[in-house]
Amino acid sequence: MREIQKISITNMVAENIRELIETEQYIPGQKLPTEAGFCQMWGVSRTSVREALRILQALGWVDIRPGKGSFVPDRPFPPKSQKNWYDSENAQFSDFMEVRFAIEPLAVRLSVKRAEPKEVAELFEIHQSFIRANEAHDLTKMIMLDELFHTKIMSYSKNPLLININKQLLNSFRIYRGESFTDSCVYHNAVQPHEQILQCFYVKDAEKAVLEMQRHLEITEADMRQIHGNQGEKKKFSGIVDKI
Questions:
Q1: Are the CB atoms for 121 and 79 separated by under 8 Å?
Q2: Cα gap 176→179, rounded to integer Å
Q3: N or C terminus: which one in the chain shows less Cβ crowding within 10 Å?
Q4: How far apart are CA 127 and CA 180, in angstroms?
């Protein structure tokens, strides 16, 4: 019961912070209050604020800069009426998987070579939280942590173009990622692949990391096809930003 309350507070804090950004009470590039400031503002724990900021970072609403604090990204999400190059009303599940197969193996190859020890430790922490969420069958948290795991690997590549491509596609990926965790067997299937990828960071084996990422994506693709059956190819995604 205590864990459920904690998650509820974390989501509430995340939603409140995002509302402040959406209503432009904090504008692009502006520094957000400190963790202690948010704690005082809403009477919540620092742990809840920290988790909320990490969630918002994964969703692209907050830019956390080590040693400097949290900021509103310089490029906020565009208005829903604005058309982007990556938006497509006819995008199907297979289209998104083709993009993932192209950019994620490249990202993990670069990241294994370039990640600093503190970044590998951060990835380990995310994975441990993912395991706990899996054991608790906390689907909301699993979706967020899965996205954070993959987004961090992208960021460790230190390739700004790759990072930006991934950032712009996150909203569309998020819709199908959410569906992939609706089945208990499917969300359990993500734990071992993440573990194998993480081990590659420890031994600095970039080639094995590429293979493990490809296997992970193959499992994901098979799981989604199993969920939707023959409807998998017909499933369309709109890229709408979901509420937390």
A1: no
A2: 5
A3: N
A4: 18
User: Do 72 and 27 form a contact (C-beta atoms < 8 A)?
Assistant: yes
Answer for the pair 95, 234: CB distance below 8 angstroms, yes or no.
no
Give burial (CB, 10 Å; 0-12/13-18/19+) of 50.
Answer: middle
In 3D space, the residue among 63, 17, 56 whose CA is nearest the CA of residue 38 turns out to be 17
> Quick one: which of 160, 133, 155 has its CA closest to 145?
133
Helices (H), the chain: 2-22, 35-42, 46-59, 93-114, 117-135, 139-156, 160-180, 184-189, 191-203, 206-228
Query: For residue 234, how many other CB atoms are within 10 A of its CB?
Result: 9
> Residue for token digits 């083709």?
98
**Taking a C-beta distance cutoff of 8 angstroms, is the pair 69, 32 a contact?**
yes
Contact between residue 234 and residue 92 where contact means Cβ atoms under 8 Å apart: yes
244 residues of the chain, pLDDT tens digit each? 334 334 457 777 888 898 888 888 899 999 999 999 999 888 888 888 988 898 888 777 898 988 899 999 886 554 444 444 445 556 677 788 888 999 999 999 999 999 999 999 999 998 998 898 888 877 777 877 888 899 999 999 999 999 888 877 776 676 666 656 555 555 667 899 999 999 999 999 999 999 999 999 998 888 777 765 544 343 443 332 333 3
Q: Which residue has the tokens 């009426």?
A: 81
